[in-house]
Amino acid sequence: MGNVARLSIDRGIPSDLNAVPARAREIEQQGYDGCWTGEINHDPFLPLLLAAEHTSRLQLGTSIAVAFARNPMLVAQLGWDLNSYAQGRFILGLGTQVQAHIEKRFSMPWSHPDRRMREFVAAVHAIWDTWCNGERLSFEGEFYRHQLMTPMFTPEPQPHGVPKVFVSAVGDLMTRVAGEVGDGLIAHAFTTRRYLDEVTAPALQAGLDAAGRSRADVELSCPVFVVTGETEEQFAASAAAHRKQLAFYGSTPAYRKVLDLHGWGGLHEELHRLSRLGEWDTMATLLDDEVLETFAVVAELPDVAEALVRRCVGAIDRVLPGFPAGMSEAAIAAVLDEVRSRRATVNANADG
């Protein structure tokens, strides 16, 4: 799996378009390798256009854009234009969302998500191949059919190639799809190191083997919760906030398999029951220190960098550390500088 030598450190970027230019410049100046947007209550693509305009080095990705709320042609066009404008720095991160949102919020069809995602990515690549090579568009699959592309609707050639495509996955079937057709896998924040090692890694490798690819062909991107603080009060507040967030994720049936792996299926059932009653504060009290430390890096500030590297090495290639709210940029910078120092040392030793 991944190694510290190629560990990229990423950060989220705000959805408020007015805040994007200054924040993107700041993230690049702070030495981050990439920034990501999510599709929650705003469009995930628009902020990246502004981020591309106001940066020159930072990689820019969607984590995630909801694939099934769109069709491959629309996504291919968005990806082509953003990658062209960003001069090759755009990463198209795609995810499925869950059935209720696809059908009831987006009014789009839902079926066989793993097969549909595999075909969605293949269709996007087929469209890009037509634009790159001038070959006739002829894609016909189980869910998508693209067979018309005239010169008027073909974008101008551009020298930056096509975006990398990352696929978001939790379960083994979608993880295998990422290994088959993706340039990367986006793991969910509600993931433990054991789950990465025992479930994600084998499923990803199975997909890579099926496609005749190697682990070096993909990047595994994963957010990591960080419980720490510059003061005892901040540490305690960080732990409380993360317990509450983890309790929310743990109440969701889609993520039960992570708890099941650790023998905590009963915890999911109780969290789910309480969530239906709206007992959000009570839910957080059910997560003891063992659960918190399994899902998050929990460390005093001087030890965070070492703990973060230990969580990532051998599993994660791109990490998005979730530092506590209110933690100073100076403290964050010190942690990340130490992580980068460890990465540089490994690379120097390899070169030597």
Automatic annotation (TrEMBL):
InterPro entries: F420-G6PD/mer (IPR050564), Lucif-like_OxRdtase_MSMEG_2256 (IPR019919), Luciferase-like_dom (IPR011251), Luciferase-like_sf (IPR036661). It comes from the Bacteria. This is LLM class F420-dependent oxidoreductase. Residues 15-310 form the Luciferase-like domain. One of its GO terms (molecular function) is oxidoreductase activity, acting on paired donors, with incorporation or reduction of molecular oxygen. Pfam families: Bac_luciferase. It comes from Mycobacterium adipatum.
